[in-house]
Amino acid sequence: MSTRSKKIVFIHNSAKTFVSLRLDLARELQSKGYKVAAALPVDKFDSIQTIRDASIELLECSLSRTGIGPFSNLLYFFQLLKIVKTNQFDFVFLTTFKPLLFGNLALMVARKKSARSISMITGLGYVFTHSSIKAKLIKAVMIPLLRFSLKQSTAIIFQNPDDQAFFLKYRLVDPARHNILLMKGSGVDLDRFKTSPLPKTVCILMVARLLKDKGIFEFLAAARTLKKDYPEARFKLIAPRDENPSAIHRNQIVEFENEKSLEFVPGSSDIAKEISQSSIVVLPVHYREGSPKVLAEALACGRPIITTEVPGCSQLVVDGETGFLCKPQNLPSLLDTLRKFLKNPELIHQMSAPARKFAESELDIKKIANRIVQEALESGR
């Protein structure tokens, strides 16, 4: 069967995040002759238009990312079941928990043996990183459900070795059954995210959802402290709101804006431009991530990064060469790493080329797409 006749559907939890996290991969697969569709909720018009402009077939479904009510989840399952029954897919690419769980279950019920399921683990999320009673209860239910649904997948893609170890420990994946791939993230378009001259004034940028666990408060406190000693330095936060239980309110940032310690932007449609206007990109997250794409994009732009010693983040830093690591939920540690750059801005210039080189070696979307095609889609396993 010619590659050109094969069709792959991405089942994702959001049009907006599909555009930011999966569109580059979808385009690479199109360039290799695959027909691409996307089954996702219509949550943002400009994202939907971007998907259509990319000649990706849009299959609409409804999904509440954080809701645990049975009705909404059953509705989502039956919508996916209809989609996989009425379409002829060769491959089903699943990311994030609900699409992964219900997508695999829909393939089981539909008995679509001709459609190969590829599951990408992009981080363990709120339930696996919090110790609340609610999180523990949901986790106790999720683990056996994941174990059962992943039996449908032929390939499992991990973005960091810690998540892979977790899934192996809890027998969520089986090396005898699954083709297991490990790669450092979702990939970056190196033609779009490219090096550019550094700004004359040091600009420290953080891009994240408006969540406490992303280290927002630590960044705000660091900006307030360091602005006193380095008044010319700029601190910029780009943070759209989120429906996650740990989301913070916009009014908690206003006082920092009023005192001129940082600039706040509630979202941006051009992250490449934002990074090009920055000197350093910071992500002081509290918990494990899959592999934060904004850090990969920063490296591709030749910008050193600061992030925490947590799974998924630490693998993107060659400490002292492409950036620095700091301790999670530790303001003094974050301040120490930021001061290294502010005291000696020449470090930013010295780390620029190694940062880009790391991205070219480890994070190029073309290389990652080639691996997915060769080892997940066409491996024959």
What does this structure look like?
The chain has 381 residues and is α/β, with parallel strands linked by helices. It has two domains: 199 residues, Rossmann fold (3-Layer(aba) Sandwich), CATH 3.40.50.2000; 160 residues, Glycogen Phosphorylase B (Rossmann fold, 3-Layer(aba) Sandwich), CATH 3.40.50.2000. It has 15 helices and 13 strands. The strands form two sheets. It has a seven-stranded parallel β-sheet, sandwiched between helices. It has a six-stranded parallel β-sheet with strand order 10-9-8-11-12-13, sandwiched between helices. Strand 8, helix 9 and strand 9 form a beta-alpha-beta unit. Helix 2 packs across helix 15.
Q: Which key features would you list for this structure?
A:
381 residues; alpha/beta; Rossmann fold; 2 domains; 7-stranded parallel β-sheet; 13 strands; 16% strand; globular
List the helices and strands and how they pair.
Layout: E1 7-11, H1 15-21, H2 23-31, E2 35-40, H3 45-53, E3 57-60, H4 70-86, E4 91-95, H5 97-110, E5 116-121, H6 125-129, H7 133-149, E6 153-158, H8 161-169, E7 179-182, E8 203-207, H9 216-229, E9 234-238, H10 251-258, E10 263-265, H11 271-276, E11 280-283, H12 293-300, E12 305-308, E13 323-326, H13 331-343, H14 346-362, H15 365-377
Parallel strand pairs: 1-2, 1-4, 2-3, 4-5, 5-6, 6-7, 8-9, 8-11, 9-10, 11-12, 12-13
Helix pairs in contact: 1-3, 2-15, 4-5, 9-13, 12-14
